[in-house]
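Slack export, channel: ligand-projects

TW: morning all. Re-posting the request from yesterday since it got buried. We need the structure predicted with the small molecule present, not the apo form. The ligand is zinc ion; the SMILES is in the block with the sequence. No rush, but it would help planning for next week.
GE: picking it up
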Amino acid sequence: MDQSNPLFTSPTFIALVRWGALVVGVLVVLGLLWFLYRQTRSKPRQRLQRVRTLHCVRCNHDLRNHKGANCPKCGLRIPPEQARLLDESQSNPRKKGEEIDD
Ligand SMILES: [Zn+2]
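GE: finished. pasting the full token output, ligand included:
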């Protein structure tokens, strides 16, 4: 930096540089926190939600009336825990209604 230029030594300029550095630093930290949040929370939560609602974990295709080991849309192998849920829903689709008849 040119120390002979009065612009670079003025208190206003120095204050602007400090505030600018602070703002950039805060934005970088917030961006890192957002990135870590997306990596650690969002994807597993979305995957679990799709498994529970019987949708493909990759492409979100509805698998409720599908029989097979792979997603018909994207070809992803259906995870074992979701395959169990699919078997239960297809072998006993009106479980709640039957409980009322008992
Ligand atoms: Zn799929």
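GE: first-pass observations. The chain has one domain: 6-101. Residues 96-102 have pLDDT under 50 and may be disordered.
TW: perfect, thank you
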